[in-house]
Write a structure and sequence with these properties.
By secondary structure, the protein is of the alpha/beta class. About 30% of the residues lie in helices and about 20% in strands. The chain has a five-stranded parallel beta sheet. The chain starts with a strand and ends in a 7-residue tail after the last helix. The mean pLDDT is about 90. The structure holds flavin-adenine dinucleotide. Flavin-adenine dinucleotide binds next to helix 1, strand 4, strand 8, helix 3 and helix 8.
Length: about 450
């Protein structure tokens, strides 16, 4: 019986663990949260009312009940991988509440490792985005879905991508007032992604039905939806009181003279997602130009015995994550992927490519920054300080800029600002370097000191 270790209990990891088990492997699934489900099925129980908050809830319940036959370790934080010559890396884990004392240290030396660690949100900075009352859309959604807490009474949702719509839906469901949705992509960019060969979208028709549901909700609540515009500043003294919204050019540069002030007590912003690759990078997996992990048609990475699935291989949504997870789990256990999963992966890869074309970030956004806009919030580094360091030192290397400015050296280790810093340095020599984090998660010095290497078989 082969040994398969899965890291990440979102849609991709759940599907991978179950498929590997079904094909006869002995499976352990490690998940940092206190339940499986990941970002898509972020829930606070499995009560009868929970289903109204989530698409595909029945699928989640089926996967979760299937996982009772697999060893699932929750609150399991994988913080380091040690490479081996002829085998997948050794996986170091701390088990317990992230802020708790006495977390248990464990190590695994699997025959096959499946990484399914998902994605981070990408948020483009703007003047005033560090005011209280400005949230990432994901944080607002987590508070709504997970805690039933509304981030404000008059909320503006802004950024790019279809993800803005479920966020609005969650806000409306908990009774927040939504002042409007502002999508940065203009009609031409949206058409480039979604209008080409529309019949091919039929294969993903339940996504169209989801979209129709959101449109109905917006109409019922009279929430205005504007395209080709962005929040270019937030205003307030102790917290957000208003935002400036401006029309954007096709390249996302604000069009002068189109600014409009809108009252809001909260702003939720999201400009897409970035694959969460630190473990894959630590394992030595090759990544592509967009930072996602490169895989073959069997979800195998460049490192023998390491497979990946879900957002880690490219941002594509839960359906793609489920298909890739099914294929990765099957292959990890020595099986042959079924045609249904392979077909579903092809359909949703095309869907992902359309999404990237329709909502992908355009470089003109940098024009809405001013020199005092904070870029790295952990270390309080402004856009001006970063540009000054580039001009004065002539440096084009992220490592040296990090050491000069401290951007990316704080608690989040560049998860929030990394891609932004990369965008702001013209002619950057080492893009993607902000994903290199030898220690993947925050841990105490005491835990580091007692992490027992001798446990490694
Ligand atoms: C904040 C946020 C909100 C989102 N909300 C939606 C939504 O409402 N609708 C939608 O269609 N899409 C949403 N998405 C996109 C969503 O990520 C995908 O559609 C889907 O969840 C991808 O599945 P996945 O399994 O690849 O990743 P995820 O669902 O992100 O699962 C990855 C899992 O890996 C775990 N993990 C990561 N690192 C470690 C580690 N070091 N140790 C142990 N465990 C680890 C995480 O805790 C997580 O549970 C959201 C994404 C984000 C980032």
């Amino acid at each position: 019986m082969s040994d398969v270790l899965v890291v990440g209990g979102g849609p991709a990891g759940m599907a991978a663990a179950l498929a590997a088990h079904r094909h006869g492997a002995r499976v352990v699934l490690l998940e940092a949260g206190d339940d499986v489900g990941g970002q898509f099925w972020r829930h606070r129980g499995t009560g009868a009312d929970e289903g109204v908050w989530h698409h595909g809830w029945d699928r989640f319940l089926a996967l979760r009940s299937g996982l009772t036959r697999v060893e699932v370790v929750t609150n399991a934080h994988v913080w380091k991988l040690d490479r081996r010559d002829d085998a997948p890396p050794v996986v170091h884990v701390l088990v317990g509440e992230p802020d708790g004392q006495g977390r248990e240290s464990r190590t695994y030396a699997p025959e096959t490792l499946i990484l399914a660690t998902g994605a981070f949100e990408r948020t483009l900075p703007f003047p005033g985005w560090d005011l209280p009352g400005v949230y990432t859309a994901g944080a607002a959604q987590a508070l709504a879905k997970g805690e039933r807490v509304a981030v404000g009474a008059r909320v503006l949702v802004a950024g790019a991508g279809p993800f803005l719509l479920p966020v609005v839906s969650s806000l409306l469901r908990i009774g927040a007032g939504v002042a409007g949705v502002v999508e940065a992509a203009g009609p031409a960019q949206l058409a480039r992604g979604w209008a080409a060969r529309p019949w091919r979208l039929l294969a993903a028709r339940h996504k169209t039905a989801e979209l129709a549901g959101y449109v109905r909700e917006l109409a019922t609540h009279r929430v205005p939806y504007r395209t080709g515009a962005a929040v270019v500043a937030a205003h307030g003294t102790d917290r957000v009181e208003a935002v400036t919204v401006a029309r954007l050019s096709a390249d996302w540069a604000p069009v002068p003279g189109t600014e409009r002030r809108i009252a809001a007590d909260a702003v939720c912003v999201s400009h897409g997602f970035v694959p969460r690759t630190e473990l894959a990078v630590a394992a030595g997996c090759v990544t592509g130009p967009d930072g996602s992990v490169t895989v073959d048609d069997r979800q195998r990475t460049s490192v023998p015995g390491v497979l990946t699935a879900g957002e880690l291989t490219g941002i594509g949504g839960a359906d793609l994550a489920l298909a890739e997870g099914e294929i990765a789990g099957t292959v990890a256990a020595g099986g042959v992927p079924g045609p249904a999963a392979v077909r579903q992966r092809a359909v949703f890869r095309e869907f992902a490519a359309r999404m990237a074309a329709a909502h992908g970030i355009r470089p003109g956004w940098q024009a809405w920054l001013d020199d005092s806009t904070v870029v790295c919030r952990c270390e309080d580094v402004t856009a001006g300080a970063l540009r000054h360091a580039v001009a004065v030192t002539g440096s084009r290397g992220l490592r040296s800029l990090k050491l000069t400015t401290r951007a990316g050296l704080g608690l989040c280790q560049g998860r929030t600002c990394g891609r932004t810093v990369e965008d702001l340095v013209p002619g950057l020599l080492d893009p993607g370097r902000t994903d290199r984090r030898p220690i993947a998660l925050p841990l105490r010095l005491g835990e580091l000191a007692t992490s027992n290497r001798e446990d490694v078989p």
